[in-house]
Structure formats: C-alpha cells, structure tokens
Write a structure and sequence with these properties.
The complex is a heterodimer. Chain A is built from 11 helices and 14 strands. Chain A is α/β, with parallel strands linked by helices. Chain B has 6 helices and 15 strands. In chain B, the strands form 4 sheets. Chain B has a 9-stranded mixed beta sheet. A two-stranded antiparallel sheet of chain B has the order 2-3. Chain B is globular, with a radius of gyration of 19 Å. The relative contact order of chain B is 0.21. At the A-B interface, helix 6 and helix 7 of A face strand 2 and helix 4 of B.
Chain lengths: ~425, ~270
Amino acid sequence: MTTPIVPPPKKDPQKRTRVPTRPSELRSRAALGLAAAAAEGRFMLQVCGECGAIQYPPRDACAACLSVDLPWKDVSPAGRLMAETTVRTSTNVYFRERTPWRIGTVKLDAGPSIMCHVHGDVERGGTVRIVNRLDKSGQGVFFALPSEETPAMEDDPQLREMSCDPKYRRVLITDARSENAVALAKAFSDAQASIIFVGEAESWRAYPHRAALAAIPNVEILPLDVTDTQSVNELAGEIGGKTDILVNNARFVRPGGIMDRGDTVFARDEMEVNFLGLMRLAQAFGPAMRGRGADGQSSATAWVNILSVYAYSNMPAFGAFSASNAAAYSLSQCLRAEMRPGGVRVMNVYTGPTEDAWHQPLPPPKVAPAALARAIIAGLKDGLEDVFVGDVAKDLIEKWRAGAKILEREMTEAGGGET
Amino acid sequence: MTVQAPNPAALLGDLATALASEAIEVIDLTHTLDQDFPVIVLPPEFGQCARFRMEEISAYDHRGPAWKWHNFTCCEHTGTHFDAPSHWISGRDIPNGNVDEIPADRFIGPVCVIDCSDGSKADEDFELTPEIIEAWEAKHGRIPEASWVLMRTDWSKRRGADYLNMREDGPHSPGPTPDAMKLLVNKRGIRGFGTETVGTDAGQGAHYTPPYPAHFFLHGAGRYGLQCLNNLDRLPPTGAMLIATPLKIKKGTGSPLRVIALVAREGGQ
C-alpha cells in the first residue's frame, strides 16, 4: 500500500534548501536510446533486424548473431518480478539521500531479464508492467509498476522522483489572455496543484474568460507580460522561489510567411513572445527552479513549453510563426542543458493547428484547449520530455523521423503544404 | 502671420526672471512612458502599436562597470505623443508633413483649453460640438489663429481598463464631432488639437462621417494632434503657452514627447 502524500508543511526558513544531486549519468551511446524512448514514455528495446533477438542491456551488436542492425522497437512491457531487494545505503549521494530504495530483476514476457527500480506495491513474484522513465539526470531507466492500478500508486516516493506530478505543487501558467488558460488552470486544479498562478498581460484591456479563470479553485491571477523584461523579473522576484512547474502558454500567431507579409512587424512580435518570451522567463525563473530541484516532496520539477510542431518542418502558410517556434525549440534544448544540474525536466508539448481564431479557416482536426491541457497533465505525470498532441502533430513527427527532407518537400508544395 | 514683440530681448529676459521666481509655472502635460500604459488597440489582423519596452544594456556591472543604460522600443504613437500630418491618409501629400520636416516654430503656441470634464463624467461618449466651442468663445473670446486647442475631459485620471473603456462594440471615450473639427481647422485656423484620451478622436470615432474626423481634418489641413495628455486641469482656459517638440525622426509620422505648458501663476503679474 502506498502512503498517500499530504500537502507539505511550510518550509523551515532556517534550513538550507537541499542542493540537487543526481544519479549516475554515465551511459554508452547505445544506451541513450533508452532516454530517447523515455522522453516520450515508450518502453522500447533494441530488436535485431536480422535474427529478431530482443536485446538487453543496449549494445552495438546483436548478442545472438552479431548483427549491428539493432533498431529500437516498442516491446511488451509485461513481466514478473523475479528478485528484489531494498537498498539501505549507497556511495552515490543521490541514492544515499533517498534510501530505502527498492530495486529488482524482472523477467519480461518478451524474453530478457532486466534490472529495474521497483514500485512499493509490487508483490514479490508478482506480475508487473515496466515503464521507461527519465531519472533526475535525464537518463532512461526501467521502473516496475504493479500490473493493476493500486490506490495512490503515483505517490510512491521512488515513482514521484521520476515524475513531475502537479499534485501539491505550485504552478505558474503564463498568458491568462490565451483561450488555453482556463482549460490549463482547470486541469491543474483537478490534478490537485496547490496554487495555480496565472500571469496576466495588459490588465488595461478586458478579455472574455477572465471571470471563468478567476473562479477556478486555487487560481491567483498576477501581472506578467513575457515581452516585458521588468514584468517578468518582478513576478520572478515575488514567486520565483515557489514555482514548481512553469507552463509557458504565451504565444503570438499570425498567418503568413515571407513575401505575403511585406514587413517584419508581426515576425518581430512572434520572436518577442515565442522566442524571447521563453528566454526572459528562463532567465528570471530558471535559476531558482534549478536550485530547488531537490527541495523535498514538492520540489521544482518541470518547465513546459507549448510549441508548434511546425518547429520541426516549416508550414509556409504560417511560415514566420513556424520559424519563431523553431527558434524556441532550439532554445528549449539549451534550457534542458542548463536545467539538467537541478534535475528539472523541460517538457515540450508540440501541437498542430489549434482551435482558435487564427486557425479558424483551417480544416479539422485541430487541437482543443482541453485536449492540450490533458496532454500536459498526462505528460507531467509520466515525466516526459516530448509530447505530441493531436493527429497532425503525431503524423508530422512520424514523417519527420522517416525523412525530414521528404517531409520538407511535401510541406513546401505550392499552396502551402497544409498537412 | 508675424507678430512683433515690443522688445524681444527684454521679453526673454523677463521670461527668465518670471520662470526663476516661479511667477510663470511650467506644467508637465506628459504621462510617464510606462510599459503598462494603454495604447490604441486595433482589430488584431491589422498591425498594432508597439508597447513601450525597455531592456537593460548594463547597470554598473559586468556588462558595463561604471554606467547604466537601456535600449527602449515603442511605436511613434505610444504614450503621450504627437501626430504629424503624414500619420493620416488625408495628410499624405501635405508638404513637410513628417515630424523631421515640421519647422520648429510650429511646436510652440498659445493654448485654449475647452473644459468638457463635467460632460465627459456624465457621458463617456461625450461629443465636443460647434455649439460648445461657440459657448466657450462667448465666455473667453474667439480662439486665436494658430492656437493649440485642448479638449479637457479629465480622462487622464482614469486607470486600467477604464482608460480605453473597451466594450464588445469598441472603445468608449469622448471626442470631437466632424463639425467641431471643421470649425476649429477651417474657420479658426488652429495649430493643433489635443486630448487626454488615447487618440484625438472619440472612442467611437470610426462611426462618424468621415471616420475619425479629428485625424481627417487636422492632418488633411497640415495641422497636428496631441494625445494621452495629462494635467489639463491645471491649465487656464486661455493665456498659457504650449511647447510640444516631437523627436526629429526621419520621415516619422509622430513621436512620443514631453509636452509642457507655461502658465502665469495666479496672482502673478
């Protein structure tokens, strides 16, 4: 039985905040495939292209036939716990601070036996479901969960180390004016976030959903404009030290590419919000979040960017917007590197056209705010780095992986390539 | 029109003395350039007025140890600002219609202040009409040629969302009717017209014929606009001198600026 977590007591201001430490980061290059799969929450192993043998641990040549054709494939996560132990001390500082820590060996139905972290509710010899999670150093590790849901299983302390669960955490959502804000705040409220700060730009002009936003339990609306460095710094000064999850929901979208616009005014706005907005927020909120990556049960845990999937491959009908998102995507990789010492996850949520005024003439499917919010909460609970929400985004990333240049040719068909 | 002062050098000397003794007061009619000060809001598919923004270059630190300075960005029409004739389509062909081309003597002139504050308090769509102008003239004398004319509404005391006063049918704030602008521009030959609201026109000014009559008539005749003015309640109806010098922006259609007025202190000589 997992002991459900309770809202954390107020912090003792005389105690030093625990400095983030990390589990070992050393991996072979082949083993980084685990991190890539864990980034999307997929349980994958190398499967030999010649003899079909499933490999574990990751390697450069097939253990059965020495073939070097070892693509990563989704495999069945079902298995049985064969052996388990509880580590009570460790020379590694990260684990030393977190003992007792349960680990074990699981025999997968698919064949291999794997070493993994073990959830407290898994019975000895019981059936398990393996998930591939990113640990605090951003490496993919296997985690054995009970095959059936158990009460409050997400509160298992080991599992919470490898998720970014909003429960009893404090969230900042930027851009109250965006139509997404209500759905996002509602989803975090339902996920038991303790406070949901929502940043509001330009309080001098009204917007229709403000009352609905303010009515959501635990929502606090505060001034924040991501294009205004002083406003970002002021809010970070006030709540930077208690922002556990930051959701950058601000974005500026206008249709158009290069020649049909004829000026750089909207492009500048797109860069101001979509690229520099991210940078301002990261400069103001990043250091405190990184410093609080191990600050107890409700530590700072995740940074969420909502990006256009056309960051990967330009959609000429929204060409300049796509470019600003490509810039933000690149910057998010830099942010990952800078957040890594604190163990704070940077989760990018990629979406295709959204259900809003700027995408109104586009045909469905379009991503509704509620769907986006669901994907964000689910992604945080699974500790993901990359989430593709909606059919358009999922389809595009598959095509991009299959052949980025082919996709580019397809996207740049005369007419704008609205996939 | 040239008016000879009796003794210009003595006049300037007297002015200096009056300023030093505060017999003549300098009133600041300007709002602070603040990131949060409202700007005009247009339908979102149109280009928008850039908000005032400021980025620190250095602040006595590793980026510049002994000095602090900022880059700032804004629109020509952000904050308390000046509208040149080239701002409006009716003034596009006016010679010297850009801020850099306007002779500097055009920026200084006598100012008439028409108090519409009571009316604007009662009616947010209050209109400045020819009747109101004529009633003002009956009391204070005819508006002299080449005067600045300011419409006082006390709108500058409004804060937050009340300033633009946006509703689903657009903003609601006071302004002049087309006939009032025709009277001021064509019959009185004013230098320019200024308001405390975000524009020289009423919030609902798009619905007049012609739309935005203040912009249309002022700039079409090569006159100037001032908006987002402050402290108009500290000006007398007549007798003050207004100084409004926009930045000398090449081909600029307007500029944020510091607007000041010289006012004889009550009881002063």
